[in-house]
């Protein structure tokens, strides 16, 4: 087996290409992993995409894979196609032997006694785990500025945010710190950072990937999914992490569908693609985003797809419904951080040490502003006398949104819209205006409310910043979003290469942090 120097070229390959070179014995996993660790060391002072880097663990796994490959035989044959390709994990997903913080002071220093099911699968498949990525505290946000451990910067422009809540995973993949990452998407936290960083990200069908070990934000909306630079890579990772899990009571009984095959077929001739009227125009959409969207529609049309318009009138209420259902569930899920069972404990400065007062002091010191805002909103929406008016109405809207999707999918195989109304905004621009922050997710939230799959695929640049397009499909039809996204990726220049050639060289940037 030959060894390759830790070149920057190596980290710019797709995960599928890395895997092929590993299989062919052209590179070793140790070299590949070290190349990513070197990159992390070089750019982390600027980006802050990682909350924890696990170099030793990653290199141990890499050495194990290399040893199996060198020995050959049945063991080597049995290796997973992605074995030896490194991965980063959003710090909302629990990992044994590495801290899990949810980017919150309330979990600072906490070590999970168990692995999430997706992490177990990644370990079994022997992907070196590079570390845990930054996020908005408890995944509440759209910019990663709500992290208790400092914001992540966007590698395309370090004065801008990388999206959120999964800004760490998206920035790490965009900046070649990792070829693969895991995210979670409750209202868009995989897809919106994907749009802002030029990365591919999928929110799978609800129940398609186990949530066991994903720290709960809003349990009826949360989904773990892949973050990558190409559609094929996302499909490879999605197939690895997907499928039934008896430990998750909402897990679908079906095996994961054939997504890699779907991502390798690019023919859209005769396919019906529905433009969601409510999500493709209007106030708040930047012209550069609409231009990229329209160019994508033209490309799909020229390739033989039929573009139709679909009407989803209830989507106008999706954001309102989401910001009642999500905080209601979050307020209940976050009740467990009480300073008694695990995590941080803060004692009141004076007065008696009652359990209520310890809980109060712990939660006051441990949670950030945005988390507190949502807990208050959620407990209010669920309180006696308001439950029907707020939570109950929001659930009715949820049903109407599901019906809008059902009707739309009678007219089209997949639906399409811009993933976010704008490109990445400047740091600090929306931190004082929660409503402006919430509006980023206007296009991504309906899929979570309906439990259907969605993918973000890069669709070129607007003034040097990535624009993302979203495809949506009916529940359990995840293969359709991969097929459509791979087709668009191909039509726009193939595997996003056109985009990646233009990303600024971070080696020359530096910021005071
Ligand atoms: N940005 C949305 C929110 O703040 C979505 C978050 C997510 O998907 N985790 O709730």
UniProtKB/TrEMBL annotation:
Q: What is its EC number?
A: 6.3.5.7
Organism equals: Nesterenkonia sedimenti
**Which EC class is this protein assigned?**
ligase
* UniProt cross-references to Gene3D superfamilies, sorted A to Z: Amidase signature (AS) domain
This protein is called Glutamyl-tRNA(Gln) amidotransferase subunit A
**GO cellular-component terms in the record?**
glutamyl-tRNA(Gln) amidotransferase complex
Q: Which InterPro entries match?
A: Amidase, Amidase_CS, Amidase_dom, AS_sf, GatA
Q: Which UniProt keywords apply?
A: ATP-binding, Ligase, Nucleotide-binding, Protein biosynthesis, Transferase
Pfam families attached to this UniProt entry: Amidase (PF01425)
Q: Does the keyword DNA-binding apply?
A: no
General function of this protein: Allows the formation of correctly charged Gln-tRNA(Gln) through the transamidation of misacylated Glu-tRNA(Gln) in organisms which lack glutaminyl-tRNA synthetase. The reaction takes place in the presence of glutamine and ATP through an activated gamma-phospho-Glu-tRNA(Gln).
Q: Which family does it belong to?
A: Belongs to the amidase family. GatA subfamily.
Transmembrane feature ranges: none
One Gene Ontology term of the biological-process aspect is: translation
Q: Name the active site residues.
A: 90 (charge relay system), 165 (charge relay system), 189 (acyl-ester intermediate)
């Amino acid at each position: 087996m030959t060894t390759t120097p830790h070149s920057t070229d190596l980290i710019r390959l797709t995960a599928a290409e890395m895997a092929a070179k590993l299989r062919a014995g052209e590179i070793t996993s140790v070299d590949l992993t070290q190349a990513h660790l070197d990159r992390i060391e070089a750019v982390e002072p600027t980006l802050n995409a990682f909350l924890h880097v696990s170099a030793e663990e990653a290199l141990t796994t890499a050495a194990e894979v290399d040893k199996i490959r060198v020995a050959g035989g049945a063991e080597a044959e049995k290796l997973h196609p992605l074995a030896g390709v490194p991965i980063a994990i959003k710090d909302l997903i629990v990992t044994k032997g590495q801290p899990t913080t949810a980017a919150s002071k309330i979990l600072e220093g906490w070590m999970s006694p168990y692995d999430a099911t997706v992490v177990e699968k990644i370990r079994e498949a022997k992907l070196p785990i590079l570390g845990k990525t930054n996020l908005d505290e408890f995944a509440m946000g759209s910019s990663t500025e709500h992290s208790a451990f400092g914001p992540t910067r966007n590698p395309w422009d370090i004065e801008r945010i990388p999206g959120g809540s999964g800004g760490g995973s998206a920035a790490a993949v965009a900046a070649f710190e990792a070829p693969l990452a895991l995210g979670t998407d409750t209202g868009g936290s995989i897809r919106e950072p994907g749009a802002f960083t030029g990365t591919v990200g999928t929110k799978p069908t609800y129940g398609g990937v186990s949530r066991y070990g994903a720290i709960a934000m809003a349990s009826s909306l949360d989904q773990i999914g892949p973050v990558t630079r190409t559609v094929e890579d996302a499909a490879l990772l999605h197939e690895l992490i997907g499928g039934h899990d008896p430990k998750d009571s909402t897990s679908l009984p079906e095996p994961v569908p054939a997504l890699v095959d779907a991502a390798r077929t690019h023919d859209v001739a005769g396919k019906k693609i529905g433009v969601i009227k409510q999500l493709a125009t209007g106030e708040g959409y930047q012209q550069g985003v609409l231009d990229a969207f329209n160019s994508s529609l033209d490309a799909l049309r020229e390739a033989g797809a039929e573009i139709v318009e679909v009407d989803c009138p209830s989507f106008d209420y999706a954001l309102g419904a989401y910001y009642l259902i999500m905080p209601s569930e979050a307020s209940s899920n976050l009740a467990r951080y009480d300073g008694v069972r695990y995590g941080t404990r803060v004692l009141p400065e004076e007065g008696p040490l009652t359990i209520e007062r310890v809980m109060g002091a712990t939660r006051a010191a441990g949670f950030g502003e945005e988390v507190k805002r949502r807990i208050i909103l959620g407990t209010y929406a669920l309180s006696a006398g308001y439950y029907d008016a707020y939570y109950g109405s929001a659930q009715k809207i949820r049903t109407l949104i599901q019906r809008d999707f059902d009707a739309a999918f009678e007219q089209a195989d997949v639906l399409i819209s811009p993933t976010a109304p704008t490109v990445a905004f400047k740091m600090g621009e929306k931190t004082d205006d929660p409503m402006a922050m919430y509006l980023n997710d206007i296009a991504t939230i309906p899929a979570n409310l309906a439990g259907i799959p969605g993918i973000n695929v890069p669709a070129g640049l607007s003034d040097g910043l990535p624009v993302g397009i979203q495809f949506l499909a009916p529940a359990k039809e995840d293969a359709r979003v991969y097929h459509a996204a791979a087709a668009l990726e191909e039509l726009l220049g193939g595997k996003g290469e056109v985009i990646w050639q233009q990303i600024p060289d971070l080696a020359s940037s530096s910021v005071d942090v």
